[in-house]
Structures are given as structure tokens and as C-alpha cells.
Amino acid sequence: MRRLGPTVARLHKMRRASMAAMAKIDSLSGGLGGGAPGRLETMTGFGGNPGELIAKTYIPSTLTPGAPLIVVLHGCTQAAAAYDHGSGWSDLADRHGFALLFPEQTRANNSNLCFNWFASGDTRRGHGEASSIAQMVRHMLASHDLDSSQVFINGLSAGGAMTAAMLATYPELFAGGAIIAGLAYGVADNVPQALERMRGQGMPSRRALASKIANASDHDGPWPTLSVWHGTADTTVSPANAAIIVDQWRDRTGLAGTGEVDRVDGHQRTTWRDASGRVLIERFDVAGMGHGTPLSTRGEASCGNAGAHMLEAGICSTSHIASSWGLTGKVVKQAAVRGEAVRAPVTAPVKAAAAPKPRSRPAATAPRATGVGVVIEDALRAAGLMR
Question: Please, what are the domains in the chain?
Fold first, then answer.
């Protein structure tokens, strides 16, 4: 029988390398924890929830039947409330009367609270986390009598990469999406590939990525609009990823040409239009900005709260994205109690849903192997090869 010593030593080395890799992917987050003050509420009973995600919502007092719905995806290590606090989405919802849905990751799924954007089991239609987010959207539409033709999605970093996955796998659900410092759909299938792609290296061919998004659903249009944002000084996720996202979506929608270039608040914007002249894709290159969500926290057009990876850039991505989706054309009055918007009652009956079905993964309190077994399990989990 071969000695276990060298094997255990190799596995320890693998575990350290894998943990370092996951820590690097963790930097996709924006790095905010969950300590920011929150205004969100938890929604339950939205479906089978195969991805075992948490649903957080914000329903302003100004909400009326037929209002739009915005889905917002946080990054690794973040809680939904922290990202809302930084980005200012619920403040905008108060002023303009739309509903917000914040899917939230759990440590049982990912120890760093990342959406599993590089795991095929969570980014395929009808499976895992992508399916859970789609269930949340449908439940919100029915529960609050929202407009199914005005559903939009956006996210930062790991949340941006998951936004790309949702637009690819459920394009019929969304009228538009925005990807901030993210990656294209299907660029990685595991941790090592994810790290390479974040550096802008080892990308699949353009043809291969076009095939991945074409096979993600059988939808044949119309297509959601897409807004892509990336800092030119981002050293966490290479700015090269912005061009790859745009190329993949252009191939999916059949848009040709180099695009029209202008400047907005001092930053370069490139736009591609469909046959009717409508802007279908826009790309913002935010000059000098690192990895994070662009904000403008001063002046009359201020939004959000600057912090780790919530970056003062002289342009408010939250406001611009909402405006490009036609959500800020009117301002509504709101009632206030102790400085917080009064929650509107549900205007449509909520249908009872089946209790969430857990995945076949060990519970957090389940007994674990010891000795060599625990080293092997830890190495496999850290490498993303075991839940």
C-alpha cells in the first residue's frame, strides 16, 4: 500500500492554492460586507428554489399596479442590503415608483457569497441559481401586479457575470440588462478558468462564445437592451472583458459596425442601434476608474454612497441605467414614516408555492470526515469540484 503522507501533502498544497484562487475570485465582489443599514424585506414561497438563494425585496409606498421591476445582483462577500446602500437603487425606487428584487447568495452555496457564475449547474436555464432568480421574478410579477414587459436586471462584478447568465438563459424575461465590471456568459467553467478570464487571458473564441449564448435558450427575439460599464483602470477584472461581452451580445442580436462614440459626463460611451434606430447596446469606458460601481455622490444628480468598490467617478451608473430604461421620466410623491417609505400592501393575491426543495448537498451541521478525509473534502470544495 502506498504511503498517504505525500498524497496528503499534495492535497494540502492544492487546498492552499485553491483557497488563494477563491480569495482572488472573492475580489470580484466589491468587498462590501453586510453591515450597511438595510431597507429590504425577505420574500418567501416563490417556488422550488433549486439554487437555494434568498430573495430580498424593496416595495416603495409609491408602487402602483403595472409598475416596473428591477433585479439587482450583488458581488462576493456582499449582502443585498449593502449593495443597495452603496448603489442607491431603493432611493431611486422611492422617487420613481418601481419595485426592486435583490437575490442574495448564501454561504451554504458559496463560502464567499459569490453567485456561482462560473458553474454550469447554476447558469443553465431551468437549473440552479439561474432558475431560482427566474422563479423570484415571476413571483414578484404576480404578487405585486407588476408589468412583465418592464423587467430589468443589473449587477456588479460576480453579480454582473450572473446578470450576463440571466440575459443569456432567460432573455424573454427581461427588457434590459446592465453589466458592471463583469464577464461574458460561458467564458469559464471552473475556478482556474475564471481567474484567467478575469485577467483577460485564455478566452474562448468569439465563435465559441456566440455558440454558447445561442444555445442558452430557444428565444428568437425581441432582445433585451444591454448596458456595459467598466473602469479603464480595473486591475481585478480586465477591461478587455467589456469588449468580449459586447461582441457576444452583438453576435446574438445581429448588430454590425463599430458603433457610435460620444461622451457622457466626461466618459466615453459607444452605442449600437437596431434597424429602428433604438440603442440596443451601449458600452461605458469609465476613465481612470478601478473595480467597482461608478457613482456621482455630489451635487444635484448625486446617487449612492461611496465606499469599497462603490466608486466616485463623476457619473452615476444607477441613475443613467434607470434613465436608459425609461424609468425616471416621472417623480412620484411618497408618504414617509420615521424617514422610511411606507410599504404598499400587496395588490394581487399571492399564490401558495411549494416549499423550497434542498439540493443534495450536506447540511452545514452534518458531521464531517476527519483526518485524510477532511483534507480531501476541503481541497475539492475549495477547487469548486464538490459542494
Answer: 36-357 (3.40.50.1820)
Instruction: For residue 157, give the nearest of 290, 68, 18 by alpha carbon.
Output: 290
CA 167 centroid distance within chain: 10
pLDDT of residue 329: 83
Confidence of residue 16 (pLDDT cuts 50, 70, 90): very low
| SS3 sequence of 158-201 | HHHHHHHHHHHHCHHHCCEEEEECCCCCCCCCCHHHHHHHHCCC
- Supply the pLDDT for residue 182: 97
pLDDT at 273 over 90: yes
Please name the amino acid found at residue 114: C
Q: Is 157 a catalytic residue?
A: yes
Active-site residue identified among 29, 87, 90, 157: 157
One-letter amino acid for residue 351 of the chain: K
Residue 5 has pLDDT above 60, yes or no: no
pLDDT at 304 over 50: yes
C-alpha cell at 18: 485553491
* Strands 54-58 and 99-104, bridge-based pairing: antiparallel
**How is residue 326 written as a grid cell?**
425609461
Q: What is the number of alpha carbons within 13 Å of residue 233 lying toward its C-beta?
A: 8
State percent of the chain over pLDDT 90.
Answer: 69
Report yes or no: 357 and 49 within 8 Å, Cβ to Cβ: yes
- When computed from its CA atoms, the radius of gyration of the chain, rounded to whole angstroms, is 21
Strand order in the sheet with 267-273: 41-43, 54-58, 99-104, 69-73, 151-156, 176-180, 225-231, 279-286, 267-273, 260-264
What average pLDDT is seen over the chain? 83
Q: Pick from 14-18, 26-30, 179-183 the range whose average pLDDT is largest.
A: 179-183
